Amino acid sequence: MDRKIRVAVVGASGRMGREVVKTVLTEPDMELVAGVDRSTGPVDLGRLVGLEPCGVAMHTDLELALVESGVDVMVDFTAPQTAYAHTSLAITHGIRPVIGTTGFTPEQIEDLDKQCRENGLGGLIAPNFSIGAILMMKFAAQASKYFPHLEIIEYHGDQKLDAPSGTSIKTAEMISEVREEIRQGNPHEEETIEGSRGGLYNGFRIHSVRLPGIFAQQEVIMASPGQTLKIRHDSHERSSYMPGVALAIRKVMTYEGMIYGFEHFID
C-alpha cells in the first residue's frame, strides 16, 4: 500500500505493549495512531517508551480510540479475559486484529474467522511471535514423524498466569497433526505425587516450570532406543518477538480470514 499502515496498540503501557509501541514508531512503513490502556493517563506514547514525543496520547476507551483514529491494524497483548471482545470489536469497526494473547477456544477462533471473512479483513492470533520459536515448533513437528516418543518442557517466570503456555500447546497441536497417537512409557506407571508426570496431551506429556528470573524457554525432548534428540529455543527478552509482530502487521493487510498461528507466515 502507498500510505503507512495505521496501528493501534491495546495494552500499550504493559511490558509487551511498550515494545510494540517502540517497534511501530521506528518502522518506516507504519504510523502509530492510538495506544489504549485503562490504567494510564494521557501520556505521550513516545515518551512512554523512552523516545521523542510522537504527538499520540494514551486513550482509556478502546472503542473511542478505534473509531477516532482511522486504525488499519489493532495489536493486542492484553489478557485472555478481554481478548475475544477486543478482537470482535476491532473487526466490527473494519480493523484487522493482530492478537498475541492465548486462551481462545476453537469455537471462538472459528467465529472470529467468520467475522473477518464477512468484513473482508485479515486477522492473526499467535501464541508466539518469535521467529526462532516458530522454527523450533516446525522442526519438532517434522522430527516427531521419526521420533514419536517425546515430551515438552516449557519454562517461564513465576508470574505467568497460564500453564501450560500457549507456545507449548501450539507445539503439541502441530506435532499431533503429523504424529500418530501412541502410548508412551510403562502401562503400569503410577504417580506417587499427583502431577509429577506433567499434563497429558495425545499420549505425550507437557511440563510447565515457573521460576523467578526466567523469561521464556522451551525444549522438545525426543528419544528412541540408543539416541535422543532435543530441540530447544530460548527467548531472553521481549524484543525477540518484535520482528514477528512487524511482519504480522504487514501480512494481515494482504488476506482475508483469521489465521491461528504465526507459523503460517514462515516458509
Taking the sheet with the most strands, its summary is: 7 strands, parallel
Element order: H for helix, E for strand:
EHEHEHEHEHEHEHEEEEHE
CATH class of the largest domain: Alpha Beta
Order of strands, main sheet, comes to 3-2-1-4-5-6-12
Please indicate the percent range of residues in DSSP E strands (runs of 2 or more). 15-25%
Helix content: 25-40%
The number of helical segments is 8
Secondary structure class reads: alpha/beta
- In round numbers, the mean pLDDT is 93
N-C termini distance: 23 Å
Q: What is the third-level CATH name, the topology of the largest domain?
A: Rossmann fold
Shape: elongated
Binding site for NAD(+): 11-16, 37, 100-102, 126-129
Domain Dihydrodipicolinate reductase C-terminal: 132-265
Family: Belongs to the DapB family.
Domain Dihydrodipicolinate reductase N-terminal: 5-129
What does this structure look like?
The chain folds into two domains: 5-125 and 239-265, Rossmann fold; 131-236, 2-Layer Sandwich (Dihydrodipicolinate Reductase, domain 2). Helices cover 33% and strands 25% of the residues. The chain is built from eight helices and twelve strands. Strands 3-2-1-4-5-6-12 form a seven-stranded parallel beta sheet, with helices on both faces. Strands 8-9-7-10-11 form a five-stranded mixed beta sheet, with helices on one face.
Topology of helices and strands:
Layout: E1 5-10, H1 15-26, E2 30-36, H2 45-48, E3 58-59, H3 62-69, E4 73-76, H4 80-92, E5 96-99, H5 106-119, E6 122-125, H6 131-144, E7 150-156, H7 166-178, E8 199-201, E9 204-210, E10 216-224, E11 227-235, H8 242-251, E12 257-260
Parallel strand pairs: 1-2, 1-4, 2-3, 4-5, 5-6, 6-12, 7-9
Antiparallel strand pairs: 7-10, 8-9, 10-11
